[in-house]
Amino acid sequence: MAIMFKPALNHLIAIFAGILLTLSFSPFDYYYCCFIAIALFKLCLNNKKPQQSMMTGWLFGLGLFGSGVSWVYVSMMLGKHEFSILPFIMTLLFCSFWALFPALFAYLYTKFQTNKLFDNWFFATFWVLVEYIKGEWVLNGFPWLQVAYSQIDTPLAGYIPLFGSYGAGFITVLISALSISVVQKKQFLSFVFMVGLFIVGSFLNQIEWVKRAGAPFKATLIQGNIAQKDKWKVDNKNKTLKQYYDDTKEQWDADLIVWPETAIPAYYAEVKDNYLLMLNAEAVKHNTAIVTSLPYRDEEQNLYNSVFVIGQGAGIYKKIHLLPFGEYLPWQPVSGYLLSYLDVRLGQFSRGEGEQSLLNVAGYQFVTSICYEDAFGQLSIDQVKDAKFLVNVTNDGWFDGSIEPYQHMQIARMRALEAGRYLLRATNTGVTAIVSERGRILQAAPVAERTSISAMIQPLQGLTPYAKVGDKQTIWLVFLLFSLLLIYQTLLQRFLLVKNIKKV
User: Fold this and answer.
1) Among 319, 327, 373, 404, the one annotated catalytic
2) How would you classify the pairing of strands 460-461 and 303-311?
């Protein structure tokens, strides 16, 4: 008999389950909370009509996003010291909006699932399809708090180079759903299947998907720790430029030096003929390359969030996947008015072209991503065939003192594991880290500290299975599974209906 909760208790458990899911992600890293949270949520949907289940799903989402991404409040309160009601309301609206997607999932699951035989498969299928819609389509995508991230240090991480975050998420949710059958119904086969998924994951974790490509080289990452509220002050610019130069000149023995996102608080044209020219000459003299970031305006006056290679290397990268409400403003003019009222100064950046030449240092090409772009797996693998490692430059100074930098670091690790490449991640305030092709942190800098880290980097070549097929193929497989389940369910219902009619 299915467990059912009274309405009030059901709502409280749904909220609690959402909060519990947050605890499975960094910086908490209680990965097992993921399975408990999803199982509790599923129990809350027992015998619910589709319309009723939407409220349950929304409350679950409110618990998840209210606890997991409420750090947006920190960004709106930057430089302010007193509580303000408008940022609080906007944060609540932000979390409430993303909570609509668990509500959508709950509706679809309870609407289409009528066959207990494939109940758990329907549950996992709809979860991933909705996760994909949220992560890729809406407001340029918001792939935050996806369940697969919580499993990056478990045996289930073995599925990530195979299927990516969505495929690994499907397996994680399926295990969570099956656990109810094991505990409640004592289904031995479900238990065996669950254990089998963990065993296969452990085996996959041992596979070497890629191979070495040339000699290792030394990479150094600079973490400037420039306060966001001070970063773009005119009288602070020269101080910042000097700081990065001083920190860099101690690292001339490195083959590659990486600065964080917008490390240079000035437009390219302002520093091209003096600071950048001097820096380039120094880098060439010491036979090294510097990857740095600053805004770039082209001849058509389009403004780009960009990365440049200086010294022994070449190339410019213009950010492709822009951050909504950070680098462009949807829902104008309302969004613009609110951010202006909050005194949050943001740039209106243009989107870089989808096909850009890879940057090159130390004789190797690499894939570049800027901040929020590392949340999108497909973007990291689009050109990884020709790349020997990954570079991500980030500024999480907007969220200083919150859990966001740790969540962001966990997401970045996912990209290294999916692509089968070392990842060099330089941030302004943290987490600056060097990550292996297995998603393991080799070196990490303390958060909110001016420092640098160095390590020998192994260039790699070859493709993981995920890098060969990407997200769309994975989602098509999940959608195909849903279609087959739905067809089977429909045919079975018709068969039973005909059988009952004949009996009558």
Assistant:
1) 319
2) unpaired
